[in-house]
Amino acid sequence: MGIRNDPYCVYCPGVADTAEHTFFDCQRWSEIRLRWREEKEVPQRPEDVVPWMLTSTDNWTAMTGYVLDSP
């Protein structure tokens, strides 16, 4: 996600470190991701997340909480 010079995920060897990978696939964040999706009923598909975020302040705040909760 642009924080390091290495283009690969630290936790998933050989996988590009992209926002989509981090939010939807990376095993490092799987526990947080599962809890977040269950609590907030977040869409499972990347293309549905932004429209979901824009439907309410609560959804926007939930996304912010997910990002900040990630260690």
The assigned structural class equals mainly alpha
Number of strands: 0
Based on the structure, what is the oligomeric state of the protein chains? single chain
Segments where pLDDT lies below 50 for 5+ residues?
none
Taking all Cα atoms into account, the compactness measure Rg is 13 Å
The helical percent reads 40-55%
Give the integer mean of the pLDDT values.
Answer: 84
Largest sheet: none
Shape: elongated
Put simply, the count of helices is 4
What percentage of the residues does DSSP assign to strands (E)? under 5%
Series of secondary-structure elements, N-terminal to C-terminal: HHHH
- How widely separated are the two ends? 15 Å
Key features?
mainly alpha, 4 helices, 54% helix, Reverse transcriptase zinc-binding domain-containing protein
Helix and strand arrangement:
Elements: H1 19-24, H2 30-40, H3 46-53, H4 57-69
Helix pairs in contact: 2-4
Organism: Cotesia glomerata
Protein name: Reverse transcriptase zinc-binding domain-containing protein
